[in-house]
């Protein structure tokens, strides 16, 4: 989860998020390059009374400041497109989960083998136990096996929502009447938090998402237990 | 004694010829500084983290700390 005064991304918990992190560093490096150049030129130009009223032609500089930005754009576009296509690959998921957005909670359906479904409501602040995170915890978490490709089919039952978990590098709009697909691999075990990312009414800020990645045998025990309780 | 005629033209161009190379050099330095102070250490940090990472050991430690909802600590 995010911590107070945090400026950067949360630590990556999936290979895709690691790629996104490195791409962001690359793009930000280019931003600093251009910003430093422009800032220096601005300061150099405002700190003089010298002007040139007769700027004509100047083919050379025109070519330079057309070609250089084009090259910079290509240097940004190539890794960007690489990651875009990487994110679109759905490599034979081991598990498919349906995440349905409601006002104002998520429901998860595991229907690959048995019919397992449950709702996931935010734990109200007054019901939190020490150590739990305000506005982020849910009564039932979406449990997934770690180091396994998981496909998530996202939709909504009423209005637009969006299923997002920043540390896994996933965000997918939940549109009523439409089935959107995304996938992720949790690189390590842990608990990963997210929040609804499309305005959906009064309690839009109070329908968080919690993904719990555990080893496969524990995932199987959990799903058997959930089926018994249902 | 006559003084040399001062430069009357090309003053801005002279200033640009002086400052533009410095501007380009500084911007490259800024980019290199960010690359070697942030980008490369971050890549290395992730590589180092996963090189010796024992998922089951970390899972068990988290389990015993009571982090998970699906798996409770051994005592419970």
Automatic annotation (TrEMBL), chain A:
Q: Which InterPro entries match?
A: CcO_II, CcO_II-like_C, CcO_II_C, Copper_CuA, Cupredoxin, Cyt_c_oxidase_su2, Cyt_c_oxidase_su2_TM_dom, Cyt_c_oxidase_su2_TM_sf
- Give the cofactors, semicolon-separated: Cu cation
Major localization class:
mitochondrion
Transmembrane parts of this sequence? 27-51, 63-85
Q: Which GO terms describe its molecular function?
A: copper ion binding; cytochrome-c oxidase activity; oxidoreductase activity
A Gene Ontology term for the protein's cellular component? mitochondrial inner membrane
Q: Name one GO biological process term.
A: ATP synthesis coupled electron transport
This chain's function reads: Component of the cytochrome c oxidase, the last enzyme in the mitochondrial electron transport chain which drives oxidative phosphorylation. The respiratory chain contains 3 multisubunit complexes succinate dehydrogenase (complex II, CII), ubiquinol-cytochrome c oxidoreductase (cytochrome b-c1 complex, complex III, CIII) and cytochrome c oxidase (complex IV, CIV), that cooperate to transfer electrons derived from NADH and succinate to molecular oxygen, creating an electrochemical gradient over the inner membrane that drives transmembrane transport and the ATP synthase.
Task: Output this protein's name.
Answer: Cytochrome c oxidase subunit 2
Q: What species is given as this protein's source? A: Leuciscus baicalensis (Siberian dace)
The gene name reads COX2
């Amino acid at each position: 989860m995010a911590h107070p005064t945090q400026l950067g991304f949360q630590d990556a918990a999936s290979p895709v998020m690691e790629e996104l992190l490195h791409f962001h560093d690359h793009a930000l490096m280019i931003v600093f390059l251009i910003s430093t150049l422009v800032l220096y030129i601005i300061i150099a130009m405002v700190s003089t009374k010298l002007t040139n009223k007769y700027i004509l032609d100047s083919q050379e500089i025109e070519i330079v400041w057309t070609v250089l930005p084009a090259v910079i754009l290509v240097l940004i576009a190539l890794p960007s497109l690489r990651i875009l296509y990487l994110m679109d690959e759905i490599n034979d998921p081991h598990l498919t989960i349906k995440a349905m957005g409601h006002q104002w909670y998520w429901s998860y359906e595991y229907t690959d083998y048995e019919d397992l479904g449950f709702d996931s409501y935010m734990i109200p602040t007054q019901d939190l136990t020490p150590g739990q995170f305000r506005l982020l915890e849910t009564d039932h978490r979406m449990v997934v096996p770690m180091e396994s490709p998981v496909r998530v089919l996202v939709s909504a039952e009423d209005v637009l929502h969006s299923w997002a978990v920043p540390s896994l590098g996933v965000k997918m709009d939940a549109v009523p009447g439409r089935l959107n697909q995304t996938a992720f691999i949790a690189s390590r075990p842990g608990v990963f938090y997210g929040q609804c990312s499309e305005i959906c009414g009064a309690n839009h800020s109070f329908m968080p998402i919690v993904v719990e990645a555990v080893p496969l045998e524990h995932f199987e025990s959990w799903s058997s237990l959930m089926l018994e309780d249902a | 004694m006559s003084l040399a005629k001062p430069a009357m033209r090309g003053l801005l161009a002279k200033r640009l010829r002086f400052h533009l190379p410095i501007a380009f050099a500084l911007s490259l330095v800024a980019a290199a500084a960010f690359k070697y102070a942030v980008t490369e250490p971050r890549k290395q940090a992730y590589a180092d983290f996963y090189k010796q990472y024992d998922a089951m050991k970390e899972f068990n430690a988290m389990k015993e700390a009571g982090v998970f909802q699906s798996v409770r600590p051994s005592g419970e």
